[in-house]
Amino acid sequence: MDTIVPSAPDIVCKTGEEASIWLNLHGCLQKNHHVSLIAPGSNVQWTEPFSYVLKCNISSYWSASSTYCGGSWIIRNSTGKVLLHSRGSFYGVSFSVQAELLALSWAASAVKDHKLKNVCFKFSSPGAADALTHPPVYPFSYSTCHEVLRNIYALPKSAIWLVPRSCNLAASAIAESVISGQRFQSYVAFGGPRWLAHWLDKEAASP
C-alpha cells in the first residue's frame, strides 16, 4: 500500500479551511474588522491627526538570534504633543510578523485600559496587515489577531492603518532601543522619551 504524504501547502490550505469553518460556526470571525491601507505616496513622514483624533504609532523590533522582541507605542494629539509612550519586551518570539502582532495586541490593550477614544492606530508591517486582513490563513496567529481587532474596535471611533515605515520612525526607534540597549524593563510614561525630544519636536513642527 502506498502512503500519500500531503505537501506543506496542502496542509496549510486545509488548516486554513478548517479554521475558517470553526471560526464561522462559533461566531468568532469578525467580518466587519479591516485594515485600511494608505495609498502609496500619500504620506512619507509623520503628520498630525485631525483635531478630534489621537494618533497611536506602534512598532516592534525582533532579534532572531535571541528571540527577544522590543515593542513600543506613542500617542500624540493634533499639535504633535506626546501624551503617552510605552516600551515593552517579549521573549520567545519566533518570527517578525509574530513580533508585530504581539506589539499591536499589547498596545491596543494598553490604550483600551487608559479609556481613550478616537484613536488612529498606525503600524508598518505588511505581514501583520495580511494576517489581520485574512486571519483564517494564519491559524496560529488568529488568537492574537482577534485580540488586536477586538481591543481596537472596542474603542469608540477608532481604526487601524498600515503606513510606510518613514511615518513611524519615533516608535521604531523606541522599539529598537529595547534590543540595542538591552532595555527589557517595560514602562508607560507621560510625554516622550528625552533622548527623542529633538526628533519629536521636529516631526510636530513639520507641515
TrEMBL record:
GO terms for molecular function: nucleic acid binding; RNA-DNA hybrid ribonuclease activity. Residues 61-177 form the RNase H type-1 domain. Pfam families: RVT_3. It comes from the Eukaryota. This is RNase H type-1 domain-containing protein. It comes from Brassica carinata.
